[in-house]
Amino acid sequence: MKFAVSFALSLVMGSTLALAETGSPGSGAVWLQKVANAARTLDYTGTFVYQHGDQVETSRIWHFVDGGRELEKLEVLDGPAREVIRTDDEVLCFYPDTKTARIDKRRSKPFPALLPDQLASLTEYYDVRMGEKERVAGREAQLMILDPKDGLRYGHRFWADVATGLLLKARMINERKEMVEQFAFTQVSVGGSVDKEALKPKYDAHGPGWKLDSSGMAEGASTDSGWIVGSYPAGFRKIMETKRTLPGRPTPVSHIVYSDGLAAISIFIEPLGANTRSEQGVWHQGAINIYKRSVNDYMVTVLGEAPSATVVQMGRSVSAK
Amino acid sequence: MEKVSALMDGEIEGGDADFVIDRVIKNQEARIHWDTYHLISDAFRNEYLLSRDFVANVAVRLAAEPTILAPRPRRDFLSRVRTHALSVAASIAAVATVGWLALGNSPFSSEPSSVSIATAPQQAQTAVTAGALRPVALDGSMRAYLFAHQEYSPTTQIQGVAPYVRTVSEVSNDGSR
Predict the structure, then answer these.
(1) What is the mean pLDDT of residues B70-75?
(2) Cβ-based contacts of A48 with chain B (< 8 Å)
(3) Total-model pTM
(4) CATH number, domain A220-320, options 3.40.50.2300, 2.40.50.140, 3.30.200.100, 3.40.50.300
(5) Which of A132, A228, A277, B166 has the fewest C-beta atoms under 10 angstroms from its C-beta?
(6) 8 Å CB contact of A102 and B136
(7) Burial B133-156 (b: 16+ CB within 10 A, else e)
């Protein structure tokens, strides 16, 4: 209740809530909520570095809110050119080397992944504390540390701009305190005028020679998937269960999401068909670990920003009702 | 039996490893092979035979001192055993895997436990590190999965748009583009 009040207050007070106010219980959660809101509501442009394993990739980002509508552009500067344009309800990715564009539909309203009650209980599974103030991208940043109390989730470091709450740097670390993944702005400007021209795509998905791949999944209504995840770490609970359709696939894909308030793990179940890769094992994409196995005539894919032991454990516990 | 030894030496990975691990869990004979290999390597190290619980004991010891499972492939069985015996780290890492198998609530448990595994944090060891895993092939459905997942991830929402880099980033298995 106390948290609910402080949470509501934080929404009312908005940006006047100082990042340094960390004395009361749940203030860490309020802080995280504020950081998440800042990323959605502020206008900013900048350059950031994405690092995972021994890979480093630099990108430029533009974020602009126009009459409540979010417009975003991401341009990968290293390696093959890549461009991502995100509007409220869709994400368009350009792969100019193969003249392919890909469109993915989003929920028209973002899912409230930062659920207040789950955020409030974060301290049961993470040691949450404020770190030092440090300089990131030439700005003063407040560090927040979340260390897991077990080996089933990653540790997090968030550096947020003291002046605006914008996340300037984020790091995920494993149980050996090794960095799994990091995003860090090297330069950023917040507020001021955004060049709307810069937000336009460089490429035309309908131009000559381009292929537009719209095989992204449409989301269905919340439903019982008919599948059970028998085992998951303490503090995780099911936050979503639905069936999605993939164009070209005759049957829908079940999608179940578990979260502990910070990390999320998705379970996808689709019938094994001619188009389905039947390979089993463990892979990763940055900090996201992926485990695949077949159950009867279905392929179960479990992925999330959690140690491989966690996705494997959950994957092995999936069964039909 | 050959496969069990290959698994110990890290020569099997991905789905094949999954298959062999499954066998070790379910098949008592495979389990005996597994234990025998570890006894042999113990003997080479002049270590006394531990109790039947040695696997569990090592797992507990490991909890205090995490190890990376990254043994190098070996050619013949004898050299496998010998080098294995010399390589304490590799051996302990291999036992870590069997530690999972031996403990009821482990991530590799064949019967999902109704008890949440975080109640036993000492078992929570990641034998497969991010560095040891292969990058996933970003085919159409994997991209779709990653996109769909990110919408529901609190971490991603805190990070804003930046995580979309993951879904467009393309790095081949050897780390080059």
Answers:
(1) 49
(2) 162
(3) 0.69
(4) 3.30.200.100
(5) A132
(6) no
(7) bebbebeebbbbbbbbbbbbbbbb
